[in-house]
Every structure is written in structure tokens, then in C-alpha cells.
Design a protein that fits this description.
Blueprint: H1 5-33, H2 38-41, H3 44-51, H4 56-65, E1 69-74, H5 89-99, E2 103-109, H6 115-118, H7 127-142, E3 149-153, H8 159-168, E4 175-178, H9 189-200, H10 206-216, H11 228-239, H12 254-268, H13 278-281, H14 284-296, H15 303-313, H16 320-327, H17 344-350, H18 352-362, E5 383-389, E6 395-401, E7 424-429, E8 432-437, E9 447-455, H19 458-466, E10 474-478, H20 483-486, H21 495-503, E11 508-512, E12 525-530, E13 547-551, E14 556-559, H22 563-568, H23 576-582, H24 592-597
Helix pairs in contact: 5-12, 7-8, 8-15, 9-10, 9-21, 11-14
């Protein structure tokens, strides 16, 4: 199938504007890649320190026999449901390595926080920058420089982008990502949301709400909605960085352990295939494939920040114009909550990533001619893994074609999509640049025009809602929520009250320089407004009662104030008391330099150059 012309044009535009930075990156990669292995290159004391803790036989293999030594970077902790399964992965991988004549070391661990725990609390203001901390921790782990390849154990929101950014700064290493899968289905996401809205109205108490939440989030694995964590896994499949079909296999499934062993076999390569360095694999075509997969599945808006930073780590420059151009032509092929009623387990059962990738390849929306960690290229990622027993009694992985959709209410072919365009729109106007996720927003809510109410924090919006001050057509502006102001927390706790207002028939929308997370849904929300208010952006000019028009169809966001008055209006400074409060307590002091140096949301909100 011929590549879609817009996909081709966007890819070429990215390639051209990335030429200077990509050339520098590839030169650095080549210098690192052509050196002698670390155990032969480093001094004797360095080598002794590096392998002092290895079992004697493993030490002999690495130092004398010069077998490959693979480094594991793990996000294991047993507080996060998604990362708890990683506890035993290193032992599994080391056992497999010995069979294959290789060696494995846990190079280091990275922090992994859960936005579900910290939503609406000061801890949430560490969340976005934890991505850069994870990237730096990955670099620290790999800086021992004795590895022939790496395995990245991580799943959730900031963890995968952080691991990927860190790995790309060691782009000379073959690297495979190893997920743990989603938890089994509990209380449906729709029923959970209903209870949240009832709680927002005071119709149920804490006991009922906690019971519902605990039934939804009940075991090991990622949350089952299609938020940032599960969008991560879809994108890694589309980039060819997983063992094919690994993303949405539940923890504890019989095939899961074998897929983990296969990850080691993949990074080691075979006699006729050598796993490519990750920095060569992640080129502009690979990045475009990830962007297309995000749009085709109605994925997390967080990736309009994260994947900008990921691309930049490989010397590739993308922006929201690229996402917008792709969104105009990429069809929406799946509906998974919050863009539908299905959860990710139902998505997997209906066809999952394999079905979507096959349809996008066949439809000419993805680059087929890309490197992946597997010899068969991206076509391998259109298949579903399983196990066949062999004569010796050992499990053997097999992959089968995905086949037709098992549920066209969840996944559809390119020939009959849910929509002929993707679920994300770029908004432009006198309030700056922002994005909106419309894949879950009813068609009659794509345009909202109403007087605004300005809030300095999400808490003040909750207070106004509780006092019945918002029961009308209203656009809620929540400012001072960008990277500079307070680390750009997700404002997901605003969804229930706004959904209640919308459910009562009011025209409602949210405008903010903060984030709304991968769980943003049916309420129109112009998010990531850039430049942010704290750096003098237009949101700092908005006053209570200004009429604002959000038009997702036309891609515009305008405050309807006479131009002369708007240009003359004072840009309010961020209240000093608010700035002080945002910078103290819950470890926020340690992130002062990150807030001060953060680039804009469209530049990935990154704290590094």
C-alpha cells in the first residue's frame, strides 16, 4: 500500500527540520557504538568493581569468555499495581541468560509514582518532572558502561517516556522494553465514573466511593482504562520496541513469563539477526508511526508533551502542527474508555494493537520500512502471541494473525472507522496554542461559547461548584498550572464536577495551561495552553465574565474582547503567595530548578536541552 501523502509530507518535514540535531546525535551514537566492549576497554579496577558481585561463573563468562552482558533498568516497586509484577523479572531473565551463554545485571532502579494516588494533592506537582528524573536515573544506571544491551522494565505514565528518553541518550545500545500488562477487569470504567459523579453531587458518601474505586483498581497490572499508561504500551508496539504483542497480556498469564524470556532473546539477537541500536531504530519514521498509533486509538493527550521530548532525545524535532496535520487524515479505529465503554482487556480481545497496526499499515498510514527489535520488522507487530508445547515439554511461543475484529464496537477496520480523522485537535487564537481531545466529546459540544469564570487553582473550582456558583453555561479557566508555575499537574479531579454540569444540560468547557491526563473524556477541555500564564501568556489577561469561544471544528480558541482592549489589558503576575505555596512541602523544593528551567508544553516541558 502506498504511503498516505500527508503522512509522507509530515515525515519529510520532520526529517528536514531535524537534520542538524539528528546528525549530531547519530555521530555521537556511532562514536559510542564502535568502541571496544566495556570489560575490555575499562581499567582493571573499574572492571573488578563492575563485576564484583556477580556469581563466579558469570564473572568468568563476562571477563574471560567475553559473553554479552545485558543491563536491566527496572521501575519495580510494590506500591504501584502496574510495576509490582516486575519483582521477579530479573531472576527470570538471569536464568534465561545463563542458558544462552550471556550475563545479566540489574544496572539500576528508577522511581515510579502513581498519578492515581497523587491526583489533587501537592505530590501531583512532582509528577511531570518525575519523567526527567527517571531519564536521569536511567542514565546513571547505564553510565557504568559495561553493557552490550539493555532491558527496560516499566509501564506507566511518566515511567516509559522517562526510560525511553534515558535509553536514547545511550542510543548505541540495543534496547528492548518489557511490560507487565493490565490488571484483569473489575468494576467497569463507566460505572466507576457514575459513582464519582454521584459523589461530586453528595449523593453517595466516602464509603460507597471507596468501595467502587477499590473494585475498579483491585490487583496487579495497569489500570484498565486507555490512559497514559496503556497509551504508552500501544506506542511502544507501534515503534517496534517490544516483543510483538506483549503490551496487553495480563500479569500471571502463562504466556507472560515466556514473553519476558523472549525479550532477553530479542536483545541478544540471533545468528542471522542483530538487534539494532535503539538510536538507529528510533528515527523520524518510527516517531511518526507512534504519533499515528496515538491518533488512531484516541490515546492520551499527555503524549503531545512526552513524545515531543522523546523525539528530541533522538535528535528529532516535532511539534503540535505535526500532530494536527496527521490527525486530519488518520482514521479513528478504536473506542476504549474514556473514548468508549470498553476497557483495554476488551480491546485486546477484540484485536488489540495487532489489529490496529495491521489496518494502519494496510491503509498506508504507517511506515512499514522501519527497523524494529525483531528481524521481521513492523509486520511482526500485527500478530498475537500464544504458547504451544513442544515435545520436550518446554513452552514455545507462537504468533498468529490477528484476523478480523472480534467486536466492531471496540475496533474497526480502516474501511469503516469510527471517524475519518484522529481524536486530537490543535487550537489557535488570542489565548495561545492548545490542544483538545475530541474523540470522546459529543458532536454538539465541539463548540462552546460562554462567559468565563477564572480560577487560580483546581481547589477553588471545586469550592465554587460545591457552592452552586457554576450551574449555568460557563467556561472555567484554571491558570497557573503550567510547568513553570507548579510542574503542570494533571487536573483529572475536575472531570466529575464539570461532567455533572454538562449532564444537567449546561454548555461547559475547561481551559487551562495544565494537563487533563489520558483519562480526559466527554467534557471539552482546551489544555496545555502555551505560553503558560506564569510566563506572561494570554491566560494571565483573562478576567471573570470575558466571553470565550472554543471551536474544536475550526480549531480556534478566542476570548471575544475588542482587540484594542485586549492588547491594552494588563498581564497579571502570578500571585507570590501561590508561587511560594507551589514551591514548598512534599519535596517540591527539590524541583525548583526544574520549574525554573522548564521549556513549554509544546517543547516537551523538558528540563534539559
Amino acid at each position: 500500500m502506498k504511503l498516505n501523502e500527508t503522512v509522507h509530507q509530515v515525515t519529510e518535514r520532520i526529517r528536514q527540520k531535524s537534520l542538524p540535531s539528528r546528525s549530531v546525535y547519530l555521530a555521537q551514537l556511532e562514536t559510542a557504538r564502535t568502541r571496544s566492549p566495556g570489560a575490555q576497554r575499562l581499567g582493571c579496577a573499574n572492571v573488578a568493581h563492575a563485576f564484583a558481585a556477580l556469581p563466579r561463573n558469570d564473572k568468568l563468562r563476562v571477563v574471560v569468555e567475553r559473553v554479552p552482558n545485558i543491563g536491566i533498568v527496572t521501575a519495580f516497586n510494590d506500591m504501584l499495581s502496574a510495576h509490582a509484577p516486575f519483582q521477579h523479572y530479573p531472576d527470570l531473565i538471569k536464568s534465561e541468560a545463563r542458558k544462552l551463554g550471556a550475563s545479566v545485571q540489574v544496572a539500576g532502579g528508577v522511581p515510579a509514582m502513581c498519578d492515581g494516588v497523587t491526583q489533587g494533592t501537592p505530590g501531583m506537582e512532582l509528577s511531570l518532572f518525575s519523567r526527567d528524573v527517571i531519564a536521569m536515573a536511567t542514565a546513571v544506571a547505564l553510565s557504568h558502561d559495561v553493557f552490550a544491551g539493555a532491558l527496560m522494565l516499566g509501564v506507566c505514565d511518566k515511567i516509559v517516556p522517562g526510560l525511553l528518553i534515558g535509553a536514547l541518550h545511550f542510543g548505541h545500545l540495543p534496547t528492548v522494553f518489557v511490560p507487565a500488562g493490565p490488571m484483569t477487569s473489575g468494576l467497569s470504567n463507566g460505572d466507576k465514573s457514575k459513582v464519582r459523579e454521584q459523589a461530586a453531587q453528595g449523593l453517595v458518601g466516602r464509603a460507597e466511593l471507596l468501595a467502587a474505586e477499590s473494585e475498579a483498581y483491585h490487583g496487579e497490572g495497569t489500570c484498565t482504562f486507555y490512559g497514559t499508561a496503556n497509551s504508552n504500551q500501544m506506542l511502544l508496539e507501534a515503534m517496534g520496541l517490544h516483543v510483538p504483542g506483549t503490551a496487553f497480556i495480563n500479569p500471571g498469564a502463562a504466556v507472560r513469563d515466556e514473553l519476558t524470556r523472549e525479550a532477553l532473546r530479542t536483545v541478544l539477537g540471533t545468528a542471522d539477526f542483530k538487534c539494532p541500536p535503539i538510536g538507529l531504530l528510533v528515527d523520524e519514521r518510527c516517531i511518526v508511526n507512534a504519533m499515528v498509533a496515538l491518533l488512531a486509538t484516541g490515546g492520551s493527550t499527555n503524549h503531545l508533551i512526552h513524545w515531543v521530548a522523546v523525539a528530541r532525545a533522538a535528535g528529532i524535532v516535532i511539534d503540535w502542527d505535526d500532530f494536527s496535520a496527521l490527525s486530519d487524515v488518520v482514521p479513528l479505529l478504536s473506542r476504549v474508555y474514556p473514548n468508549g465503554s470498553a476497557d483495554v482487556n476488551q480491546f485486546q480481545a477484540a484485536g488489540g494493537p495487532g489489529f490496529v497496526i495491521r489496518e494502519l499499515l494496510d491503509g498506508g498510514f504507517m511506515h512499514a520500512d522501519v527497523l524494529t527489535v525483531r528481524a521481521g520488522g513492523l509486520r511482526e507487530y500485527t500478530r498475537v502471541p500464544g504458547i504451544n508445547a513442544v515435545a520436550e515439554g518446554f513452552p514455545k511461543l507462537v504468533w498468529q494473525d490477528t484476523g478480523a475484529s472480534k467486536d466492531e464496537g471496540v475496533v474497526r477496520p480502516v474501511s469503516a472507522p469510527f471517524s475519518t480523522s484522529g481524536g486530537l485537535k490543535l487550537l489557535l487564537g488570542n489565548l495561545g496554542r492548545s490542544v483538545i481531545k475530541i474523540s470522546a466529546v459529543p458532536d454538539d459540544r465541539h463548540i462552546v461559547e460562554a462567559p468565563c469564570r477564572v480560577f487560580e487553582s483546581q481547589e477553588s473550582l471545586h469550592q465554587a461548584f460545591a457552592a452552586n456558583e457554576l450551574h449555568r453555561d460557563v467556561i472555567c479557566v484554571v491558570r497557573w498550572q503550567g510547568p513553570h508555575a507548579n510542574g503542570m499537574p494533571e487536573l483529572h479531579k475536575l472531570t466529575p464536577p464539570l461532567a455533572v454540569l454538562q449532564g444537567k444540560g449546561f454548555k461547559v468547557a475547561l481551559i487551562t495551561d495544565g494537563r487533563m491526563s489520558g483519562a480526559s473524556g466527554k467534557v471539552p477541555a482546551a489544555i496545555h495552553v502555551s505560553p503558560e500564564a506564569a510566563t506572561g501568556g494570554p491566560l494571565a489577561k483573562v478576567r471573570d465574565g470575558d466571553v470565550i469561544r472554543l471551536d474544536a471544528n475550526a480549531g480556534s480558541l478566542q476570548v471575544l474582547v475588542p482587540e484594542a482592549e485586549w492588547l491594552a489589558r494588563e498581564v497579571l503576575p502570578m500571585p507570590e503567595a501561590l508561587r511560594q505555596a507551589n514551591g514548598t512541602g512534599m519535596g517540591r523544593e527539590l524541583f525548583t530548578s526544574m520549574r525554573r528551567n522548564a521549556l513549554s508544553a509544546e517543547e516537551g516541558a523538558r528540563s534539559w536541552l
